[in-house]
TrEMBL record:
Lineage start: Bacteria, Bacillati, Chloroflexota, Ktedonobacteria, Ktedonobacterales
Domain Helix-turn-helix type positions: 8-60
InterPro entries: CBASS_pafABC_assoc_protein, HTH_11, PafC-like, WCX_dom, WH-like_DNA-bd_sf, WH_DNA-bd_sf, WYL_dom
Domain WCX: 247-311
PROSITE patterns, A to Z: WYL
Name this protein carries in UniProt: YafY family transcriptional regulator
Span of domain WYL: 143-210
Domain of life: Bacteria
Amino acid sequence: MVYRPTARVLTVLELLLSHGRMTGPDLARRLEVNIRTVRDYIAMLVDLGIPVESERGRYGAYRLRPGYKLPPLIFTEDEATALTLSLLLARKHGITRTSPALESLLAKVERVLPTTTRSRVQAIEQTVHFWSSSFEVAPQASVVMALSSAIQSAHCVELRYQSAHSNETTRTFDPYGVVYHEGFWYTIGYCHLRQGQRLFRLDRILQIEVLADTFSPPDNFQALEEVQRALASVPRTWRIEVWLQITLEEVQRQTRLSKAQFIAADNGVIMRGDVADLPWVARFLAGLGVPFIIHHPPELRAAIQHYAHTLANHAEQSATKVFERVDGQDTPISLVARPENNTP
């Protein structure tokens, strides 16, 4: 990034706003300049009407007058470009589908930029494309925020989690890290229910609550390496290709998967990608409610047949009340799931 004098002066202001108090040597080190240049930057801020106060002496430092807030955000061209790329990546990975705030933020950034910078930022938005061959499933933004907060403060969380087989459990969990890997978001940490380190997909977290209890995270824990190690023990990744009798607009409206996974073809849509969870694909296809043709892998047909059999078994079950005679009245004592034919 190219530093200009004005950009460095604004950087001094941002550092003082974020840190509250910084010494001259600290500012010089962060800006890679000498102490005299820092004094010049401080003087320029004062000339601009920014209330920078100097604390003299051996432990002296610079700070903004207490209570001072900078009303507008000021972005350099490099900062605006970095922010735009970050927002585009967030949109690509699905976060904006659950948090419209990112789209609003991108629009606000563009609106306040100078004309020349805004044109360049819009050029990035219109011409830069991202591609991944993996399915991309977005978690709820609130889940990401809650886990990140819990990790930072070392607080336990309570998760209501749905497994790949649709089984729901509630557990206390000590989150060590959050990782985005090959289209999915994961958290890894200590599971109190299973009494060991476990990996969870964020899109399967149905509910999360940050608890008052705290934990001590392992020293030098490398979340990405641990997630990759855990995934290495997961069954192989499958290359999926399925034709769907649906329009591109409709499938994008019904799903949170990345648009890159769908291509209009043969009066329908081709869905392609890599996935390690065939039962999840079976549930996804069934949930669309449209005809489809599996091109590959053949193992997906078996997964769908198994899911269909499971649904059929559920449909055959009925809840039958069991009564006992109490004080001359029929009183329900339990609910028992029985087949519809009620054979003994």
